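As the next step, I wrote out a protein sequence along with its fold in token form, included below for the reader:
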Amino acid sequence: MKIIYVTNSLIPSNTANSINVVKMTSALKKYFDFTILIGRCNKLINTDKFKFYSVKPDFKIFLYKNYKLKFLNNIIFFIYSINKILKYKPDILYLRNL
């Protein structure tokens, strides 16, 4: 089974929300064959996302890069997420903070 976890959290980040999202995705991988996390890219922290959160790199992370047009970011992120969802056709779609 496939699951996609979609959140508008910045990744990587030290906030509790971002930590919970990545740890939850890692935990979901134990129960699903194919797991994807879709989130927003934090340009301030440029590091390996899996090492940053101390999780195994056994799921995919797709990060949307925010643009200076802040009023369009949510619309573009929505389109980006829909594109990934249609491409991978998950059995379960888990959404957070949308």
